[in-house]
Amino acid sequence: MNNNRVVIFDTTLRDGEQSPGASMTKDEKLRIAKALEKMRVDVIEAGFAMASPGDFESVKAVAETIKNSSICSLSRALDGDIDRAGEALKNATVPRIHTFIATSPIHMKYKLRMEPEKVLEQAVHAVKRARKLVDHVEFSCEDAGRSDLDFLCRIIEAAINAGARTINIPDTVGYAIPHQFGETFQQLIERIPNADKAIFSVHCHNDLGLAVANSLAAVAHGARQVECTINGLGERAGNASLEEIVMAIKTRQDVLNVETNIDTKHIVSTSRLVSSITGFPIQPNKAIVGANAFAHESGIHQDGMLKHRETYEIMKAEDVGWKANKMVLGKHSGRTAFKGRLEELGVHFSSEAELNTAFTRFKELADKKHEIFDEDLQALVSDTRTSEITETYKLQTLEVCSKTGETPVAKITLTVSGKERRASSEGSGPVDATFKAIEVIAESNTSLELYSVHAITSGTDSQGEVTVRLERGGRIVNGNGADTDIVIASAKAYINALNLLEAGVQRAHPQAGNV
Ligand SMILES: CC(=O)SCCNC(=O)CCNC(=O)[C@H](O)C(C)(C)COP(=O)(O)OP(=O)(O)OC[C@H]1O[C@@H](n2cnc3c(N)ncnc32)[C@H](O)[C@@H]1OP(=O)(O)O
Ligand SMILES: CC(C)C(=O)C(=O)O
Ligand SMILES: [Mg+2]
Known about the structure:
By secondary structure, this protein is an alpha/beta fold. The chain folds into three domains: 7-278, Alpha-Beta Barrel (TIM Barrel), CATH 3.20.20.70; 295-385, no CATH class; 390-502, Alpha-isopropylmalate synthase LeuA, regulatory domain (Double Stranded RNA Binding Domain, 2-Layer Sandwich). The protein is 40% helix and 20% strand. It has 17 helices and 16 strands. It has helices spanning 26-38, 53-65, 79-88, 105-112, 116-133, 149-162, 178-191, 211-220, 242-251, 253-256, 267-278, 299-307, 335-344, 352-368, 374-386, 430-442, 486-502, and strands at 7-10, 43-47, 70-76, 95-102, 136-142, 166-171, 199-204, 225-228, 295-296, 326-327, 393-401, 409-416, 419-426, 447-455, 464-472, 475-483. The protein has an eight-stranded parallel barrel with strand order 1-2-3-4-5-6-7-8, surrounded by eight helices. A three-stranded antiparallel β-sheet has the order 11-12-13. The chain has a three-stranded antiparallel β-sheet with strand order 14-15-16. Strand 15 and strand 16 (475-483) form a beta hairpin. Helix 2 crosses helix 3. The longest helix is centred in the first third of the chain and has 18 residues, at 116-133. The protein is elongated and about 100 Å long. The two termini are 65 Å apart. The structure holds acetyl coenzyme *A (ACO), 3-methyl-2-oxobutanoic acid (KIV) and magnesium ion (MG). Residues 15, 74, 100, 140, 142, 168, 170, 172, 203, 205 line the site of 3-methyl-2-oxobutanoic acid. Keywords: Acyltransferase, Amino-acid biosynthesis, Branched-chain amino acid biosynthesis, Cytoplasm, Leucine biosynthesis, Manganese, Metal-binding, Transferase.
C-alpha cells in the first residue's frame, strides 16, 4: 500500500455503541455498515462478538453483507473471545480480529491484576490464536497513552513477531497532548526493530477535546490507520470524529502529506443516519456536519463570501454532501447579502431608498426573530411596497388587554392625515376589539369579507401574516400586515386595507386558499 495512504477504521458500531444510550439493533447496524461501505471506509469494526448473542449476530450479519470493506470484531486477549470473533467473521470477505490487552501500570495492577510479563505472554498467545483464524490480526495496547514506553516497545515487538499486522496505540482515557503523543509514535516507530512489518494505528478519546488533534499528531509521526467514529460517538466524551479526521487530511494535504480513500460526498448523509438511529443530535456548530458548519450570518463575512467564496470557507459544502453553503439572514447581516437574497427571490429594488427602507425594517424584524426565512423577506418587502401608497391612516400605538373571563379591550392611537386620534373598544377577542377600535376612528362603512392569518415560518418566534379583505360600495381590497405579534399584524392589515380604499386601489380577487 502507498505509504501516504491512511486507513480509515470506523468503530461507530463498536466504540460508538459504547456511548451510554446508543445501543443499536442488528438491522440498524446493517444500515450504518452499508452507508460506511458506500463512503469507502476501509475497515468497519462491527462489534464485540463475545459481548452478547445480539452483538455476535450483528457482527455476523455485517460480515455476510458487506463486501467492499474489511469487517472486524473486537476481542479481549482470551481464547473464548477470539474464537467467538472468528466464528462471527467466518463469512467476511476480508475479516479482521482486533484483540487487545491493557499495558498501563494502573490497568495491569488494579484491573487485570497481572504482572507485565504475564500481560506480554497473554498478548502473544492471543495474537497467535487469532492468526490461526484470520489473516489480519490487529493488536491494541489498551491505555497506551499512560503506558511505559519501554514496555510498549517490548510488547509491540512481540505482538508483531506473533503475527499482528496492525498495531493500535489507543489513548483510551483521552489523556494525551498532541505534541507529546506525536513524539510517542515517533519513538515507537524508531525504536521497535520490526516496526516496518506492521501498520501503526491511532485510537483517541475526547475527554480533553483533543481526540482529533492527537490523532493527526500521530499521523504526522507515522501512524497510517486512524480509528474514528461518525459524529465522534464513543465511550464517555467520544472518539475522534471520522468526518473531522478525513476532512482535515483532505484540506491540509499540504502539511500532512497523506490521503484517505473516503468518498467524502457521503459524509453528511451518513452522519444524519447515525444521529437518527442513535437519537444523538448533532450540535449546530459541529465541524463538517453541524447545521451551521457552512452557514454565514455576519454581514462582513457574507459580503466577503459573495465576492470570493474562499474568503471565509476552507472546504466546499458540496464536497461533504451538503447541497450548498447557506447565507443566513439575521441581525448581523448587511445590505449586500440582504439585496442578494431578494434578487435570488426575484425581488429587485428600484432605488437605493427603497432598499434602505426594506433593510431598516429587516433589521427591526431581525432584532425580534432569531432567523429570517425567505417567506419573512417576501412578506416584509410586500409590506414595504404597499406602504409606498399615501397612507391616510397610520398606526401609532396599540394596547390590548385580554384576560381569562374578561372581555378584551383594545386602545389604539392612529394618525389620520397626520392628526392624532385615540379610541378604545371592547370585542369578542383581541383582534375583534382592535378592529372595532379602528372603526371608532375610521367610520369606514366597510364590511369585513375575509380575515386570514398564517404563521410565515415555524416556531413561536415566527412572523404572523394577516390578510384583511374589506368591501365598500362594491370595491374590494386586500390589506396585508406582518409582525411577530399577531394582533399588531391584524391591525396593520386592517389599516393597510383602509389606506388602499382611500387611495383608490382595487386588488384582484385572490385565488381561493391563496390569501
Ligand atoms: C477500552 C475499551 O473500550 S475495551 C472494550 C469495552 N467494551 C466492553 O466492555 C463491552 C463488552 N463487554 C461485555 O459485554 C462484558 O464486559 C464481557 C462479556 C466482555 C465480559 O463480561 P464478564 O465476564 O461478566 O466480565 P466483566 O465485564 O465483569 O469484567 C471484565 C473481565 O475481563 C478482564 N479483562 C479486561 N480486559 C481484558 C483483556 N483485554 N484481556 C483479557 N481479560 C481482560 C477483566 O480483568 C475482568 O476479569 P475478571 O472478571 O477476572 O476480573
Ligand atoms: C479497545 C480499545 C482499542 C479501545 O477502544 C480503547 O482503548 O479506547
Ligand atoms: Mg476506545
